[in-house]
């Protein structure tokens, strides 16, 4: 096992590390694979109508600022690809054919060669890791050689970053749900009414409403439907 892989494995289990410290490990892994720059983006599907995003990057600061100001995230073809496919995508003229300004400016900032790959977990949280450098074209043989290690890094990074960033972006409950609160939310997510849940659990509708009210409050939601969706996406059910 490569040194950076062993280091990242240790970091995965170290709850004391924050996302910045973890990103330093990913940077070292990128260097080990022959890339000077890396960026990790995460998309949490909450709220449903406006998913929250997080980004960690060591790209040149002027490029990070320009990328944000120009709204390139919405146009970036590698991001669009990552939302629909977990296959790696290598930067080239064809990939950026519809976004020539983005491609030209990225190269002006020293980002000429790159590869990206996304990962998505069963909660619907999506992450994408991109490695980039300013020289030495990425040949097919190099892609084939480092693809297994890069794929491992993508998955490991997503596991580690989502564990740290999802609670920040989605807003975890201030207090843990009780077993009964989680249970009534599970039935709610399945479309059961309070009356049906009371029959299933052999409790009064008042008791069901009490537990739903507590869950809604803890999750900071407006109603039981939103609470059920949020709890499911946070993996609380």
Structural write-up:
The chain is elongated and about 70 Å long. It is of the alpha+beta class. The chain has a 5-stranded antiparallel sheet with strand order 2-1-5-4-3, with helices on both faces. The two termini are 36 Å apart. It contains 11 helices and 5 strands; from the N terminus they run ααββαααβαββααααα. Helix 1 (3-12) runs parallel beside helix 7 (140-171), helix 8 packs across helix 10 (205-219) and helix 10 (205-219) packs across helix 11.
Note the topology.
Elements: H1 3-12, H2 19-32, E1 37-44, E2 52-57, H3 61-69, H4 72-75, H5 77-84, E3 89-90, H6 100-108, E4 113-120, E5 126-133, H7 140-171, H8 179-189, H9 194-201, H10 205-219, H11 224-233
Antiparallel strand pairs: 1-2, 1-5, 3-4, 4-5
Helix pairs in contact: 1-2, 1-7, 2-7, 8-10, 8-11, 9-10, 10-11
Give the number of DSSP strands.
5
Low-confidence stretches: none
Mean pLDDT value: 90
Helix content: 40-55%
Largest sheet: number of strands, sense, barrel closure = 5 strands, antiparallel
Order of helices and strands: HHEEHHHEHEEHHHHH
If classified by CATH, what would the architecture of the largest domain be? 2-Layer Sandwich
Overall 3D form? elongated
First-to-last CA distance = 36 Å
The CATH fourth-level homologous superfamily of the largest domain: Transcription factor LuxR-like, autoinducer-binding domain
What fold name stands as the CATH topology of the largest domain?
Beta-Lactamase
- Decide which structural class fits the backbone: alpha+beta
Strand order in space, largest sheet = 2-1-5-4-3
How many structurally independent domains?
A: 2
